[in-house]
Amino acid sequence: MPNTYYDQFSKLPQSKMAQAISDLTYLYEETKVPKKHYEQHLSKTIVELMESSVELNLLNTYYSMLKDLQVQNPKWFFQAILCLDLKINPSTIKPSEHQAIEMVWNDFIKQKKPKIMDIEVLAQFQKFEKNGLKGE
User: Fold this and answer.
1) pLDDT of 47-56, one tens digit each?
2) Helices 74-86 and 95-111 meet at what angle, rounded to 10?
3) Residue 3 in domain
4) Which ranges of 43-136 would DSSP assign to H, the alpha helix?
């Protein structure tokens, strides 16, 4: 079987491996990524790499729970999120706060808004997702 680039690459020391990755990245639309960036990632321990995986698994658990709650009762889900944002504890809610939350829910469903999250927060997410840390 012929010797491949990977066969040679996997035998490189970390520093040369980082440079090789940087060189390969440049070949894609002349994208410049410094060798140092890859060295930092290659020097991470397995534990550090697993932390982000664990974080994503926990996020998925939260997402699943919230999605189930939203499907079961959209009104209560919306009102609970509103209480969190306003720092209102439903067990000690004032009658005026309860009435206001009910009115906000009624306005929300009348307007048939497609999103619960504030439009500015959603726009910020889309900006960062599209442009990375530059956010522009």
Assistant:
1) 888 888 899 9
2) 120
3) yes
4) 46-72, 74-86, 95-111, 119-131
Find where tokens 């490189």 sit. Answer: 12
Residue 64 lies in a domain: no
Which H/E stretch holds residue 3? none
What does each C-alpha distance from 80 to 86, 102, 127 come to in angstroms?
A: 10, 11, 28
Range of the domain at 3: 1-43
**Domains in the chain: how many in total?**
1
Which amino acid type is present at position 132? G
Contact present, 34 and 18 (Cβ < 8 Å): no
pLDDT band at 60 (very low <50, low <70, confident <90, very high): very high
**CB atoms inside a 10 Å sphere around CB 35:** 16
Residues 6+ apart with CB under 8 A from 80: 69, 90
Q: Residue 41 has which token pair?
A: 């990632």
Does the residue 114 lie in any domain? no
Distance CA 61, CA 58 (A): 5
